[in-house]
Amino acid sequence: MSSPFAFLADAPLGTRVVVRTRIPGGYTDALGFLRGRSAASVSVETKRGLVTLAMADVVAAKAVPPAPQPRPRRT
To answer: Is 46 contained in some domain?
Structure first.
């Protein structure tokens, strides 16, 4: 198993990812598309917009499959 840093460095931009980061009091996840990266940070485009995460706070990262198609409404 590779480290989250190696995964984020090697994953193609546009890959759907989940990145877990450390925050005061626990952890939080960012789910979306990998849009940018540097040695110090990674950018993920989520449903709520572009978020920039410090690499020092990243504890896990992996690719995730595409979101499921919306179900048709019952009538």
So the answer is: yes
**Does residue 36 fall inside a structural domain?**
yes
Alpha carbon distance 50, 42 (integer Å): 10
Instruction: Provide the domain count of the chain.
Output: 1
Tell me the pLDDT tens digit for each residue of 22-67.
Answer: 999 999 999 999 999 999 999 999 999 999 999 999 999 999 999 8
Q: Give residue 14's identity as a one-letter amino acid code.
A: G
Whether 12 contacts 35, CB under 8 Å: no
Can you give the length of the chain in residues? 75
Look up residue 33 and give its two tokens. 């598309």
Within the chain, strands assigned E span: 16-23, 26-37, 41-46, 49-54, 58-63
The whole model's pTM is what?
Answer: 0.87
